[in-house]
């Protein structure tokens, strides 16, 4: 019984760290994106691109430095997870390459880009049909 309670407290702590980090990451993305759009807005989605590149770099650093504990939950899963999901995508693809799983990495890269575009198109299409 005591082990279950201890595991429950650990899961609650993890959840709170992810929640808090995610709230901060989402707000950072929102505020930073707005400021970038005001300054450099244009046809190319530069704010999103720059945020994704920054997030990829930060998650790569954290991934290399982390032991998977509370700092990972707060900053990796929470803050950077909400700041950008592209950072996770990038680190996962690089990890696959580093582990010698080139065909899986290529399938992941091509599949993510292709299906991401497809689902974005589907979302736009469905919205257009409902509007």
TrEMBL record:
It is found in: Cell membrane. Keywords: Cell membrane, Ion channel, Ion transport, Membrane, Metal-binding, Sodium, Transmembrane, Transmembrane helix, Transport. Its main location: membrane. Na(+) is not transported, but it plays an essential structural role and its presence is essential for fluoride channel function. The gene is crcB. The chain crosses the membrane at residues 12-32, 44-65, 71-93, 105-130. It is a multi-pass membrane protein. Belongs to the fluoride channel Fluc/FEX (TC 1.A.43) family. HAMAP family: FluC (MF_00454). Na(+) binds at residues 81, 84. InterPro entries: FluC. The keyword Flavoprotein does not apply. Fluoride-specific ion channel. Important for reducing fluoride concentration in the cell, thus reducing its toxicity. It comes from the Bacteria. It holds the Pfam family CRCB. It catalyses: fluoride(in) = fluoride(out). This is Fluoride-specific ion channel FluC.
